[in-house]
Every structure is written in structure tokens, then in C-alpha cells.
Amino acid sequence: MAVAASALVACGGGGPARGDRGQSAPEWVACSTTMVVGDVASVAASPGRKGRISVTLDATQWLKPARGQRRVTLDVVDPGATDARRAVKAGQHLLIAVPERDGVEPGVFRGEALRLERDRIKKALHAAGKVNCPSPWKS
Per-residue confidence at 107, pLDDT binned at 50, 70, 90? Predict the structure, then answer.
């Protein structure tokens, strides 16, 4: 389960951040299918998928993959279901990191946490290409 953005503080050198359950930054990137920054256009319950939401995002920066559509809809576990302060809402500017494993909450970062995590991801991208996603984070 992802943790609140305020709990994730990057450690120098791409090592694990608090709350990453031991993942290094390259492993976190390797274990994510999508990492994108943008403005939330809409949020709705995922049809037929309890505890999940469809987030439509107007992308301003793609991190993983390097390129993507201007508008993307992501089906993810609802981080607001376990902590209302983490709910994704229309109008927010955020970085969302979608884990490879379907039942895991996405990383959702706003404000200063967004800037810190974006920098951490950028530093880890090259190394992530040489790392396999380890268990238990694989799908």
C-alpha cells in the first residue's frame, strides 16, 4: 500500500524512501507502469470495480513512459478509501505513480512532495531500465 505523500521523503543517492517498504528508487520506477504529472480533469468510481477510481489527467509531464497522450485516464485503487486526506479530486495538480501490481494504491504526490518525487524519479530512470521489479511488487 502506498503511503501519504508527506511520509515519502527521498533519501540521497536513490535509496529507499521512508514508507517504500524497502524498494530502492530504481525498483520503484521499475515496478510502476505509469508515472505522470498533470492536472486532474475528473475522478469517478470505476465501473464494476469496487474500491477503484478512474482518474482523467491532463498530462503536463510524462516520466514513465517518456511520452504519452495529452489526456489520459488511469484506473487505480482509490487512495482516498483508506485516508480521506489522500483523495484525488478534480482540479488538483499531482504526480501519480501507478504500480505494476493491480491491487496496490498508486503513489499520489502534490506540492513540494511532487517536486521531490519527480526529481527522485528522474534520477532513477536510467538505473530502473537495468532493474527487474522484485517480488512482492510484481503483478
Answer: very high
